[in-house]
Amino acid sequence: MTIKKNEAQPTTQLLAELFKTNGFTSEEYEGWIIPEGSDYAMKGYWYPTATETTGQLTIEIFINSEMIMVESFSGLGESGLERLKNAFSSFVHHDFSVLLLAVWNKETPTKITKEQWRINGENYDAYIGTEGIISYDKEKILEIPTSFNERIKTLISDEALDKEFHWFTFFYANLNGLDQSAEVLKDNIKWIAGERALSTLAWRRSNHYYAVRKFVVLKKNL
């Protein structure tokens, strides 16, 4: 299904309140929330009927005229409001604290791992979010493959990176014990090599649906 921006609802007020809650004074310009003293900005679009059963929240982060980060989140629920709350909660849990620290140098109570990575002769600060996990198995705790984080680091470190910011979204889903789905995005673009590598990890087979999501931002030390 093709999602069109002219069918979207802005989430300007929600984002403004989110920044305010985290200590920012901000202004709004054409739907962009611009924290005071910053050249960076954030905008959101909500598509209440992206599919028959889900909505979609799309968040854009303006870095410069040639670089806009884009992240999307599905929203589940019986009503449009429930779907929006679900999608916005997913954004806050998976990405927002990573973005605040990487882009706006602001820490939140959510634990974000920050590491120094050397890639192609350049030094990067790596901002690594916690794993977001959904599991319908109420009897067993989901164990993520032990090599998951190290494989992510290796994959990224092998890439040719040349910009101030790079960002990566990793998503894996076990559908029914036989079928799986892996999606990896690098700088908003589908990353086939990343998807293949993610699929080959030792994921636990289960008859219950589960999914794991991780967000990583690199910022070059200039």
Chain-wise SSE layout:
Layout: E1 9-10, H1 12-21, E2 26-29, E3 32-35, E4 41-47, E5 55-64, E6 67-75, H2 80-104, E7 113-119, E8 122-128, E9 132-135, H3 148-157, E10 165-174, E11 180-186, E12 189-190, H4 192-199, E13 210-220
Antiparallel strand pairs: 1-4, 2-3, 4-5, 5-6, 7-8, 8-13, 9-13, 10-11, 10-13, 11-12
Helix pairs in contact: 3-4
Features:
alpha+beta; 7-stranded antiparallel beta sheet; 4 helices; 13 strands
Notes on the structure:
The protein folds into 2 domains: 5-104, no CATH class; 113-220, no CATH class. It has 4 helices and 13 strands. The chain has helices at residues 12-21, 80-104, 148-157, 192-199, and strands at 9-10, 26-29, 32-35, 41-47, 55-64, 67-75, 113-119, 122-128, 132-135, 165-174, 180-186, 189-190, 210-220. The strands form 3 sheets. Strands 7, 8, 9, 10, 11, 12 and 13 form a 7-stranded antiparallel sheet that branches. Strands 1-4-5-6 form a 4-stranded antiparallel sheet. The chain has a two-stranded antiparallel sheet with strand order 2-3.
Short description:
This protein has 222 residues and is of the alpha+beta class.
Q: Which percent range describes the beta-strand content?
A: 35-45%
* Average pLDDT metric: 92
Estimated structural class: alpha+beta
Measure the end-to-end span. 41 Å
Helix content: 10-25%
User: Shape from CA axes?
Assistant: globular
Largest sheet: 7 strands, antiparallel
Rounded to an integer in angstroms, the radius of gyration calculated over CA atoms is: 18 Å
Poorly predicted runs:
none
Q: Which H/E pattern describes the elements?
A: EHEEEEEHEEEHEEEHE
Q: How many runs of DSSP E, i.e. beta strands?
A: 13
DSSP helical segment count: 4
Q: What number of structural domains do the residues give?
A: 2
